[in-house]
Amino acid sequence: MFGCIQHMFKSWTFCWALILVATGPVLAQNLVFTPVLSAPVGAHPEGLTVGDFNEDGHLDIATANSESDDVSVLLGNGNGTFRSGYSFGVGRSPMFLSAEDLNRDGTLDLAVAETGADGVLVLFGKGNGFFEEPVPYPSGKGPTFLALGDVDGDDDPDMVVVNSGRFGHYPPFSWSVLLNNGPGAFTLAQHDEVQDRRGLFPTGASLADLDDDGLPDLTLTWSQPSWRTPNGYVSVLRNRGEGTFSAWRTIQAGFTLSAVTQTDVDADGHLDLMVTSLFTDSIKLLLQLSPGQYTKPANMEVGFSPVALSYQDLDGDGYRDLISTNRASDSTSILLGRGDGSFQPAGHYAVGKVPTAMGIEDFDHDGLPDIVTANSGSDDVSILLSGKAVIPSISLSAEDIRFSSDADAPARRTHQLTVANVGLGSLSIDKIVLEGSRAFSIERDSCAGATLMTGKFCALPIHFESTAPGRHQALLRIFDNAPGGPRIVTLSGTVKG
């Protein structure tokens, strides 16, 4: 079951989700996921990454929004909720992004695949949640995906870029390697253009050391644009040691392949291969027997049209579980690992419309991994908190406060703004900021720094006093740890005479 309630005057939507085989809370084995208020971002988010961009110890979210040509950043409150996002332009049709300290200054940076400009952008982080102006690098026609890793052994993160051609699936198709020279500047080391592969184009990439030589090898997925002639395969390329790759293995893994990841799911010391197959609504699992040698693909059904794939130990049993994001069923699917290469379906969880990307991190510091998806059909992100999360919710007695006085008989007018916690978790009022006309003043000590348990409130006196005739305006911003902050209260005062 899935449902949403949209606030008439605010830009948030509350959604709830139940596992398809359960009643009541979302349960699967010992899994409990609590949906949080969905957070709006730019138009058609296609990529998502997670990191502490303002260095406050809490994880934040960034999305690449292909329709609005920008990146949105949502700063985390540390309890699984996020403040209202802000966006900044990055060019034409960003499709993917990843966070990493690219120039080794201790601050997270962003690498963005910009489909409309045939290149990637590097944005160096300032450490306060904002970024420097983007630095462009050409990569090939229509980049849609990139993977970061040290491919040349110099301890600096390099890029492998998947170039899916014009408009996502028209040739030329290629993949590129961009090497980091140390301070975050990149040079093109390899560019392989594909001419004759029956119209198949690259869709995803993964970097992992498959032959235990200390250097990451490259795995690429390939697909066809037409549902009428579905095809797909996986190519494995061996790292040659100087930041370039050579062909190693080609695997017929399934139809219409997209995301790929690798981890050891059967505890034999070899990294196994998992890819999503849109056409068959499944994950294909290939166990690695020895370097470059895999079993035949095993089929594991998930939701409709899986496009993103990740792994994590969700239930705390020490075994890696698989999580897919399914764009045609607006869901994520979870497969619980048994540690021997087999998996148990644990249900599907509703998210926003047409999810395209996913992150698995602990957003609320409870030691349990949570799930976030970017939803291109609803222009937002969905957050599923693992465990019985308790989320605060703020209520204000007014969002627009008006004063009136007489210039001939000035008097100090006061309005009490009530700030209440109507949620389940404790509400922390971090700070209160007043901007605008000096005719307004507040008593910050009455609410700023307060911690309100469920049902508790504080009163914030707001004063207006002026002898200057005319209209006075100000904005009151309340920063807190509930979803969607900061709150904004509009203040206006009219002096007659």
Cα-based radius of gyration, to the nearest Å: 25 Å
Query: What general form does the structure show?
Result: elongated
Beta content comes to over 45%
Low confidence ranges? 1-29
Number of strands: 43
**Major β-sheet annotation:** 6 strands, antiparallel
- Count of helical stretches: 0
Distance between the termini: 60 Å
Which structural class should the secondary elements be placed in? mainly beta
Give a brief outline of the structure.
The protein has 497 residues and is mainly β.
Key descriptive features of the protein:
0% helix, 497 residues, five-stranded mixed beta sheet, six-stranded antiparallel beta sheet, elongated, single chain, mainly beta
Write the layout of secondary structure elements.
Blueprint: E1 2-6, E2 13-17, E3 26-28, E4 31-35, E5 39-40, E6 45-51, E7 60-65, E8 70-74, E9 86-89, E10 94-100, E11 109-114, E12 119-123, E13 135-138, E14 143-149, E15 158-163, E16 173-180, E17 186-194, E18 201-208, E19 217-223, E20 232-239, E21 245-251, E22 257-263, E23 272-277, E24 282-286, E25 288-290, E26 293-294, E27 298-301, E28 306-312, E29 321-326, E30 331-337, E31 343-350, E32 355-361, E33 370-375, E34 380-386, E35 394-396, E36 400-406, E37 413-421, E38 427-436, E39 440-442, E40 451-452, E41 457-464, E42 470-480, E43 487-496
Parallel strand pairs: 36-43
Antiparallel strand pairs: 1-2, 3-4, 4-34, 5-34, 6-7, 7-8, 8-9, 10-11, 11-12, 12-13, 14-15, 15-16, 16-17, 18-19, 19-20, 20-21, 22-23, 23-24, 24-27, 25-26, 28-29, 29-30, 30-31, 32-33, 33-34, 35-37, 37-41, 38-40, 38-42, 39-41, 42-43
